[in-house]
Write a structure and sequence with these properties.
Elements: H1 2-6, H2 11-44, H3 52-56, H4 59-84, H5 105-113, H6 121-136, H7 139-160, H8 162-188, H9 190-194, H10 199-252
Helix pairs in contact: 2-4, 4-8, 4-10, 5-6, 6-7, 6-10, 7-10, 8-10
């Protein structure tokens, strides 16, 4: 149940995707962004500091963009899994059994465990509930198992989001690293600025401010998408519990 409840791609797929993203962004930076940034600075001087290419040219921004694309991949994968299985969460897996007769729990368990959806969170909750009912023959105990399974599923979903949360936290930190680096470079050029040449200090301060600007904008975008993912996960939990209480318990009360 854990792989499906976390809804994360396998680790080696994530690693390959991350390496592919880093490689692709490096090619874009080497072939497009940095050459155009140099052209903008050479043509316009300090006026070129407002160019998009100049704002994005530094290594901190490159790393932040790489992490952003990777994070969007992880969240997109989760949304794809959630949207692709949303009908399952409201489905009566025991519709072939007559609700007016006593449920054959052994046969019902065999049918659920043999299903193609056996490892989905919704089906796993049904199986746990039926197993508890089979052992105790107590509907209240089965209902308690639904609540416990939903709580466990919620913890697993939250745990599955840890990598995404870390990336969203790390991106502004990387931006602040660029800020510190840029300010440090600017301070080393203070003598030149006092002598009348402020171009070096201006470029260094541009590194400082641009890295923070890009990192914060990326964080805002990722937090919005993360909110959508969390909302979908919460809806999955609610629908799974409603499905169990509405459909499964109605089979057990007879």
């Amino acid at each position: 149940m854990q792989e499906h409840s976390n809804m994360n791609p396998k680790w080696w797929i994530s690693l390959l995707v991350f390496l592919g993203i880093v490689t692709l962004l490096q090619m874009v930076y080497a072939g497009v962004i940095r050459p155009n940034a140099e052209i903008a600075l050479a043509a316009s001087g300090t006026a070129g500091l407002s160019s998009v290419y100049v704002i994005l040219k530094d290594v901190e921004q490159q790393f932040c963009l790489s992490l952003m694309v990777f994070c969007l991949f992880l969240m997109g994968y989760k949304l794809w899994k959630l949207l692709g299985a949303q009908d399952i969460y409201t489905y009566d897996f025991l519709e072939d059994f007559d609700k007016n007769t006593v449920l054959d729990t052994e046969q019902a368990l065999q049918q659920l465990e043999a299903s193609a959806y056996a490892e989905t969170p919704a089906m796993a909750t049904w199986i746990n509930c039926l197993r508890r009912y089979k052992n105790t023959r107590n509907v209240q105990h089965a209902a308690d198992t639904i609540t416990a399974s939903i709580d466990t599923l919620a913890v697993q979903l939250e745990s599955g989001n840890n990598m995404i949360k870390y990336i969203i936290w790390a991106i502004p930190s990387i931006g602040f690293v660029g800020t510190v680096r840029g300010i440090g470079q600017a301070l080393t050029q203070a003598d030149q600025a006092l002598a009348g040449d402020i171009s070096g200090m201006t470029a260094s301060l541009g590194v400082a401010f641009n890295s923070t600007l890009v990192a914060l904008l990326i964080s805002l975008i990722l937090m919005l998408v993360m909110h959508v993912v969390n909302n979908r996960q919460d809806m999955m939990l609610i629908k799974t519990q409603e499905s169990c209480e509405k459909n499964l318990l109605s089979h057990l009360h007879n």
